[in-house]
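ESCALATION

Customer reports they have been waiting on this structure for their group meeting. Please prioritize. Original submission:
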Amino acid sequence: MASPPGGKKDTLAPVVTTSIPLNKSKNFKGKKIELNFNEYITVKSLNQELLITPSIGNYETRIRPTGLTLVLDSALKDNTTYTFNFRNAVEDVAERNKGKNIKLVFSTSNRIDSLKIQGSVKHLLTNKKADNVTVGLYPYNDTLSIDKAKPYYFVRTDTSGVYALENLAAGKYYMAAFEDANNNLIYNSAKESVDFITEPFIDLSKNETRDFKIALQNQDVLKLSKTTSTAKTILYEFSRGIKQADLTFSSAEKPLYQIENDRNLRLYVGELNRADTLRIEAALTDSIGRTIQLKLKAKFRELAKKERASNIPLGFDIFPKVGTNIVATDSILIIFPKPVLQFVSKKIHILTENEDDLTFPDDAFSWNKLQNILTIKSAYLPAQEKFTLSLDKTAFIGPEADSTNEYKQAIKRLDPEETGTIEGGISKPGHYIYQLLRGDKLEKAYEQKSSGPCSFQNVEPGIYTLRAIVDNNENGQWDIGNYKTKTKSEPIFYLNTRIKLKANFQLTDLWINTP
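Update from on-call: job pushed to the front of the queue and completed.
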């Protein structure tokens, strides 16, 4: 004896059998929209899935075993074509098969608008397809602002980053694509990536194709949002990113400081007197290059009697990472999580395979401005293929009486014949920042600036993506746009194929297509 097999598994999606109004109906004036299906259904997340263009305001939902009804609160507009796109809202009860292409189009006049705008949306910084991004069409007026107005027509991209705005009326429209994280159909510049047309409007009279590449364009003013004081540090948290900080202190003794997570500013007490209050003149440059002058106060909390000074070693990272190699032009970087108060150059050694123990002259070292990245210049590294970087204990002392432990790392230098060359880029003259991005995670491996094509020499074998940033203002970095002035972010273009580089190979004529 056995249980009945139950027949074949249901793999068919629910299908609309009848509707009120019928699809492509004209002169519909009712206030009730009804769909009936060929099987029992369930409706999920209708408020998020159902896209109605243009907007109808509020409605009441009534769900039946084999159908659903929408009762509108207000009358439909005259001379308007409406689209009800149910996307993934409807499933059958038995196997949760999602209804496909459930869309109802009708008109309140004797004609149905039939114009269409379609295209794709990608993320500008990664070139990846952007799904569930809102693409909106706004009736044009010269005071329109997408952070205040909702689109008249809108649709969301599918998992391939593709969209289609259909059944549009002829007219003048502005157009934008944005992430709409809170589903309110209003662009939030602080949190949502965006792209838009730069012309004042589209005069829509025929079908068009428009592609977008979205990126974050936070235009909010930099503000101090929170201050946290301890016995050892003071952390200033800001409302947006900062990329440069120049501080002037009222005291002759200046505390060490650094930028954390590209957003916050941390001061270290070091050997300062905690009882003193420091007054600080801060010139901060935010992530879009605006410099703001702020006046800050700093007072470190007194160390409590029961509070013991921690004795956690000062950590660091090394470039190259363990297991990776360097080429002849590479320097060694020692990267610290906090500024270094002092270091002893004689405690930094190179151990060779010949058992030589080499130290460096002072000229071999250079620190960045925040004193948290030490560069050992390539010209001072030994010519041998293999050697070991050795750091003695307490080679580096941090601002919290912490110091480094003893450390050794084997380093291998690639022979030129073990490397390759990548040449190409953009053929027309301009100002470009070329980057080779490694692997699937698109980690930046190599970078160079050029006024024409690029030529990467001594590249380690691997799989790369070639990216070209158009440096319009020649400031050596990528700059975001400004939706308020309809200024786009600086363009970024990608080679349309991945590069597989082998040892001793020279790959040339890798040209990037640009509009």
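Sent to customer with the following note: The helical segments are 46-49.
Escalation resolved.
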